[in-house]
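Exam prep: given the inputs below (a chain plus adenosine-5'-diphosphate), describe the expected output before reading on.
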Amino acid sequence: MDPERRAPDDLLISAENLEVWYEDYHALHDICLDVRAGELVGIIGPNGCGKSTMMRTINGLLKGRSGDLTVGGMNVREVDLEEMAKMCSNIPTEFPPDFNLSVYEVVMLGRYPHRQSMWWESAEDEKVVNRALEMFGMSALAERDITQLSSGERQRTLIAKAYVQQPRIMLVDEPTAHLDIKYTLEVMQYFRDLIERERDMAIIIAAHDLNTVAKFCHRIVMIKKGRILANGTPREVITEENIAKVYGVKADVIEHDGEIVMIARHPIKDPGSEGSMPDLS
Ligand code: ADP
Ligand code: MG
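Solution:
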């Protein structure tokens, strides 16, 4: 990796007292978050708590904010979108359904911040794309139209597209929302392998399934109504108390084969009766 791309101390994202608004809706409150190279970070929390908003703030798409945010050592306020695209790539949950391109063409789209010419690809672009197709097991499907792929294959195409952007940060929004358990494990393993191979980058994944996040992520950030409620290792964050507070659910958290496993039992009907006091308002 080019040493010039290294941010000081490998701190890739640094947010301090970040507040984010949509018009007059205050979506994120007092966010303080550091992410370093080599980290796979999971963002969890109920629907509407602000996970996607956090991603859109980090990649500079949301302008309504106060506080400090540096990404790759650059102040997000001063970075243009093309510079940001070299630093940060986004992986959405799904393609727009009428996106009619081959796997190869989609992955090549990821090269756009690096392209010398709008009109043709360089030998370097082709090399990087072919390597990514191989790495994510998509070489045999390179000519296939992406509308003719399984959800897992489509997701791998999106990861390959993000990878050829050669970012230092990948922002992944609910990558496994449409995947069955086998593809979920596979896709999460690709992210884990990626972070272990490329120690120079960080990956942030917003996800719903706590057990998946606990299994693969180094660190978990738990959000409740736009605030970070917990930030630490899976063991520190996935606790019965935090799950009651954030989801209003009585859960058992156990350790199995060295992994943290959460078993959801039931919604907490009477907050007083479970020992903890979830705020269900
Ligand atoms: P999550 O990804 O955790 O489900 P979001 O970040 O999408 O949550 O949304 C956080 C909050 O911000 C929600 O209350 C949502 O309704 C609101 N919100 C999201 N996008 C917009 C928008 N474009 N305009 C106004 N409010 C929005
Ligand atoms: Mg979301």
